[in-house]
Known about the structure:
2 copies of one chain form a homodimer.
Chain A: H1 9-13, E1 69-71, E2 90-92, E3 106-110, E4 116-118, H2 120-125, E5 129-136, H3 153-157, E6 160-169, H4 170-177, E7 185-190, E8 197-201, H5 202-205, E9 210-215, E10 218-219, E11 229-231, E12 244-250, E13 265-266, E14 272-273, E15 282-287, E16 298-307, E17 313-319, E18 327-328, E19 330-331, E20 341-349, E21 354-362, H6 371-378, E22 391-394, E23 400-401
Parallel strand pairs in A: 3-12
Antiparallel strand pairs in A: 1-2, 3-4, 5-6, 6-9, 7-8, 7-12, 9-10, 9-11, 13-14, 15-16, 16-20, 17-18, 17-21, 19-20, 21-22, 22-23
Amino acid sequence: MRKLSAGALASGLGFRAQAQEAASEPLTVEPWTLTPGAPLLSPPYGMPSSFESNVIRRSARAAAMPGSGSSMTPLADLFGSITPNGLVYERHHAGVPKIDPAQHRLVIHGLVRQPRLFTIDDLLRFPSESRVYFLECSGNTGSEWNGPSGLPVQLTHGLLSCCEWTGVRLSTLLDEVGVDTSAQWILAEGADGAAMTRSLPLARILDRALVVYAQNGERLRPENGYPIRLIVPGFEGNTNIKWLRRIKLVQAPEMTREETSKYTNLLRDGKARQFVFEMDAKSVITRPSAGHRLTTHGYYAISGYAWSGRGRIRRVDVSTDGGTTWHPARLNGAAQDRALTRFEADWHWNGSVANLQSRAVDETGYIQPTRAALVAARGVNSQYHYNGIQNWRVEATGEVRNA
Amino acid sequence: MRKLSAGALASGLGFRAQAQEAASEPLTVEPWTLTPGAPLLSPPYGMPSSFESNVIRRSARAAAMPGSGSSMTPLADLFGSITPNGLVYERHHAGVPKIDPAQHRLVIHGLVRQPRLFTIDDLLRFPSESRVYFLECSGNTGSEWNGPSGLPVQLTHGLLSCCEWTGVRLSTLLDEVGVDTSAQWILAEGADGAAMTRSLPLARILDRALVVYAQNGERLRPENGYPIRLIVPGFEGNTNIKWLRRIKLVQAPEMTREETSKYTNLLRDGKARQFVFEMDAKSVITRPSAGHRLTTHGYYAISGYAWSGRGRIRRVDVSTDGGTTWHPARLNGAAQDRALTRFEADWHWNGSVANLQSRAVDETGYIQPTRAALVAARGVNSQYHYNGIQNWRVEATGEVRNA
């Protein structure tokens, strides 16, 4: 028998699919093979199968006001690295504005030679750039600061998505207006009812920030910033201002609400970290995860995501004994800069209790910390930037719990 | 004034956005900034903006029967490399079957040690692989064999899409059943009413063929093969059997309808090319393209796609004078193996008639031919595998035509 591929998965797995003697019984011909199916263009803009109707965004709690809160990506039901557009997470403060792209303007002003108003058509005429980047809310996984919340991965880690973003480089637009040497920061503002603003240090973002108008090949979704948003690869989600309307070149940070009252990290000693921009290296196993039930013993491909706001993932380690022993996982393809990287690890479940964890290491050498190490460094009140190792406990029954 | 980025686009472009003196007149505050917007989860599975309602799939002609025909991707309205799932092209022979994934089975039989039935859950448990690949119908652009059809790019080139596909390697599944050394080909069959079948040479596909269950991160769309399909990177679309139900290991091609009556290329001398698997290197400018109207003179970023079924795109050349002179275009990022590569070229339109063309060169050195060269080699009746250079004519009025 010819061995067809390297890596003798079949012989080592203990995995057995259903066997059926092909000679003894004809293959069932299902009803859908016996009748014509649905016509073309039904509908013209396609939708998922009705059998996938549970794969949707969900909120952890009811919003205080209808537009204020978040909805999470169903990470456990996704594959590869890309998040399909209909499932990209939401985080809003005043709901989703319905913006007429013909009326929308982007103004760039402040410490510039020539302030400019750009229409969307203007922006579409510039040379474009497309890159795959993750987007993560700095509040993601905040549920786990005080220990396992019991929640499933959609609600613990679902403020996380990854798209191919297309837009014009911020540096290209700043060339148009001419930036004064005294300008060290920008203020970016959104056009929603909350008019979110963040100050950003120019030197740290200029080489890669984009004014984006497309995600995964099509124009931005309304809830993700249509018609334009800022993308600052690797930085906290809130800096990636949606419904971008204004960029002001300034000397120093403007100290807006969103970088003083909010999005600062309160430490044990009463001081707060401010302008914590980069999302630290992080990973999470999405399959199996809390809420799943393993029904058979044998082989499973433990699967999840790893990512870092500082660059590429160098390595992901996986443990099945709660962090006592670690083994490197496989990374799918070449790890991409500041994008979600899919990892997988082989596991044979023999029915004992297991505690599944993953640990990311990025190209700077930074290692994802345990929750205990994170709390020791920052206390439990910093709210944002929780990137501790996540544990999923597999019971002897096969039930998987966030515990 | 500090120059912020290399490549003095701003000074050389002749491009002028609307100027507004920021000090003299306050920025307009639009109504959507003054009111709360739509709530979260409206809807839970997101949809495009209503302002993008023209960005849909379209058919070139009415289908002979409701399920038999194709619908094309709106290439001129897309960005980057990825095709969003709702716009991936369709090509069906008996409509879209509604397949219950819990009932669906994949059988692998024939010259094997142990024939197997796999459930979808079985397939999801194997190690997975995710790769970005283009998919192209071999009949794509067949409208142009006899000269410019006058049709827009959606209808000339729209049987073309590109997704991140996730699935299990075909070789992994063949390891499970054990393939006899006498098996040189596979027969793949679909579960739709047409039960499409194609024979494929095992040695040529084994290193990269996938049994796929996800596109761009979520489960396959019904019209793209839910719950599973074959992906044979770089090969004609019809070999990427949708709604995959059966793989049979055989000694020689089975000579099915889809590789004899159809999908063969009739040459001038009455002979036909058969088993022409790889899609040849090809490119097309999508912006500007037929149906567009340029309203101002000045700078435009000519933009389009290049791809090759034999590997990576090495270079794309662009001409604005109908192929008399050529200049290399910029490629976005590193060209990926057998995926759509976005290219752009700077162009200053001074109002004269222009004839815009692109020409792809792949890593094998193959150069995309002119229509004349293609016809000289194959005549006009080979129907499939048309990859000639496409011309878009810009009139002095700014109207762009397929002429």
